[in-house]
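ok here's the first one, seq then struct tokens
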Amino acid sequence: MIEINLIAVGKLKESYLREASAEYQKRLGGLCKIKVVEAPEYKISDRPSDKEIAAGLNAEGKQILSLLSPRSYTFSMCIEGKELSSTELSKKLDDISLGGISTVNFIIGSSFGLCDEVKNRSDFKLSMSKMTFPHQLARVMLLEQLYRALGISNNSKYHK
């Protein structure tokens, strides 16, 4: 069974997002070993300079990199990444698993994104859309897509 680590910067603040996240984690439990790790968000001012943002991203990046095992496959969620359909994501996860890799990481950064070091460490840069979404909502959307992708692999009726 594939192990999926969803590493996200920050905590889900809204109860409806926590409930949705918990629901998809529960559903995923029958399809994979799912673990959500919340890395602390670097505190920055309300009107941060580029230097302050870079310092925050680098601090968050160090925490994220410390959570990655060397024999895992890592996706960074970033707007400049490649967009995949649900079916393509399913096939990608199947290919990774068939290639002998049992642990897959998905990384969601803070509202300012991810530092270049994390992106460069990633095996695949994945974009949900060219549209911008709140990073907290992105977590729920990603969990739903993982549930859908693994359902496709298991011939579930969830994906239509």
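and now the second one, same deal
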Amino acid sequence: MKNNMKKIIRITIIISLLLLNISCKDKTLKETITSEVNNSMKVIINNHEYNVNLENNQTTKELLNKLPLKLNMNELNGNEKYYYLDFNLPTLPSNPKTIYAGDIMLYQNNCIVLFYKTFDTSYSYTKIGQIDNLEELNGDNITVEFK
């Protein structure tokens, strides 16, 4: 009788460990699916919706937590639009050497910049993402919705 009880306890422990392992795998799968879903966002500029391919960094994660944002972005240098956020984001700045049209970057810790022309730079930024096939945004200030 004692041997049967020991077997039952062992089997119960093994089944519990197997179920715990399955539960952990499901959580990992759920986190993977969630992170893949959250690696993009939408940007609306002049009634045109763009997909943004996001960087996997803490800056981007914090920005996603602040969405949606509707920003009146200012023109600068004939190649970018910028907006100073009323909050700071974590940074990991580096010099990309070349800025590409469609790059979304963070300058310092609170200035979001949307570049619409490709050019070389000596400034450091934290990369947030990239808009594919961004139209030229010459001229005035614009309203940009980040969703």
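notes on #2: Confidence is low (pLDDT under 50) at residues 27-37. The radius of gyration is 23 Å.
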